[in-house]
Design goal:
Blueprint lengths: L2 H10 L3 E2 L10 E3 L2 E2 L2 E2 L4 H6 L4 E4 L10 E3 L3 H15 L3 E6 L4 H12 L5 E3 L9 H6 L8 E5 L7 H9 L3 E4 L7 H4 L2 H8 L1 H8 L3 E5 L3 H7 L5 E5 L6 E2 L1 E5 L2 E6 L2 E8 L4 H13 L4 H10 L8 E5 L2 E6 L5 H13 L5 E6 L8 H15 L3 E5 L1 H4 L6 E3 L2 H10 L5 E6 L14
Parallel strand pairs: 1-2, 2-5, 5-6, 7-9, 7-10, 8-9, 10-11, 11-12, 12-13, 18-22, 19-20, 19-22, 20-21
Antiparallel strand pairs: 3-4, 14-15, 15-16, 17-18
Length: 424
């Protein structure tokens, strides 16, 4: 079957499923493989549950005319996504970065959907499977697709760009994330910059944070760009007002309020505003979009429970985002502050040093109560209370309930620190 034929089949059955537990009637089932499963084994089951066709790559499982055999299911999914993207009239905006990708993507979508028909990456499905699925969600009337790209090693963003072929791009920042895979901060910069490299090589448009010296150096004299800045008047100026606890900013004399905690979310708002301006979204609509957006999925959510105000930022963590969160928490006005932070993953040989630095910072900021959780934090030299596992923290809190006041909870996804909510 040619790609043209497969695409015609997709247009007739425009829902992709990769999990037989989520089969919908008349979908296309792609039999992907993983370390512990072989999707080919479930292809017949997918058809029985209502899938129109199943795309497989092992001839032994072709027992029906509705089994479509290809060389490699994953590559076929990616090639179909690129083919569909080329056939679409939608403009594609890709974004990556060490911190804030998903929040920024959601803000951009909130702003641009005020004027355009948009699709955007669902959740954080931003890898070699998620990016194709996002592209395949583009419909005939879609005008803008916002595609988030994640990476934990070099050449990954370049690969995703070749699939998505973006018209526009933005990098949130370059931080200490996935240091193990990138081989250090310089590797992070090189890896994330693959998005800008791709855009410049294809003469495409770039959005930038002009207050970021790394981005300024990278983009240099490149003409097709638009940036925001708090100080340089050759770029679009946006003024930071406060983050106590919510970010408030000012654009063209218009005050804009958000439901986002922390100054670290200010540039994420700025990126959405910048793209809104480029695509001629009225300023009042931009203001409404920012004001109505509410963070979810353990990302800087404020939850009040039994007299305790909890800032739940337990979706992920790295040294850069952890420092920003602690400094922001320190700047907040509250009488009794409790800090609960968990291990940061994927730091490789720098793990011990980075955890010690954060422990030292937490001690220096003078919070009333601090709990460090996880094997890495447990190995630090600090007078702060520390537990080598969540169970240790749980036992302590059950005996010594959290005091009324404000609590910040932050750690890597694998620490699952949202479990603290059950202890309040």
């Amino acid at each position: 079957m040619t790609m043209e034929q497969l695409h015609a089949l997709f247009l007739a059955h425009p829902v992709i499923c990769t999990d037989t537990r989520k089969i919908t009637d008349n979908c296309l089932f792609f039999a992907l493989k993983g370390p512990n499963f072989n999707g080919n084994e479930f292809a017949t089951d997918a058809l029985e549950k209502g899938a129109a066709y199943a795309i497989i790559d092992e001839e032994a499982y072709k027992t029906s005319e509705r089994h479509i055999l290809c060389d490699d299911v994953l590559q076929t999914l990616q090639q179909l996504a690129t083919y569909h993207r080329k056939k679409s009239n939608a403009k594609v905006i890709s974004l990556t970065g060490s911190n804030g990708k998903t929040t920024t993507k959601e803000l951009i979508n909130a702003v641009l959907s005020k004027k355009y028909r948009t699709v955007a990456t669902k959740g954080n499905l931003n890898n070699h499977i998620g990016v194709p699925l996002t592209l395949l969600s583009i419909e005939k009337d879609t005008e803008i697709a916002i595609v988030e790209m994640g990476a934990n090693h070099k050449k990954e963003i370049e690969f995703l760009c070749n699939i998505a072929q973006p018209d526009f791009g933005y990098i949130t920042n370059f931080g200490k994330a996935h240091l193990e895979g990138f081989g250090g901060v310089e590797g992070v910069i090189q890896g994330k910059s693959e998005l800008y490299d791709h855009l410049m090589a294809h003469d495409k448009y770039i959005f930038m944070n002009a207050d970021d010296p790394v981005q300024l150096e990278k983009l240099g004299s490149y003409i097709k760009k638009m940036g925001f800045s708090t100080r340089d008047h050759q770029y679009y100026n946006i003024k930071f007002i406060e983050a106590n606890p919510y970010v408030v900013l000012e654009v063209e004399g218009t005050r804009m309020e958000t439901q986002l905690i922390g100054k670290y979310n200010f540039p994420n708002c700025c990126a959405a505003i910048l793209m809104g301006k480029y695509f001629n979204v009225p300023l009042e609509d931009i203001k409404t979009a920012l004001a109505s957006y509410q963070p979810q999925n353990n990302r800087s959510q404020i939850i009040e429970k039994n007299g305790v105000k909890i800032i739940l930022d337990a979706y992920n963590a790295n040294p850069t985002s952890m420092r920003a969160a602690l400094e922001n928490f320190n700047a907040m006005q509250a009488e009794n502050k409790t800090l609960i932070i968990g291990d940061m993953f994927e730091l490789g040989p720098t793990a011990a040093e980075e955890h010690q630095t954060i422990a030292d910072l937490a001690e220096s900021l003078g919070f009333q109560t601090v709990f460090l959780v996880g094997k890495n934090f447990y190995g630090t030299k600090t007078p702060l209370a520390k537990f080598d596992s969540f169970d240790g923290l749980k036992e302590h809190i059950q005996k010594n309930p959290l005091q009324k006041g404000m609590v910040l909870i932050k750690g890597s996804r694998g620490m699952a620190l949202e479990r603290v909510l059950d202890l309040v």
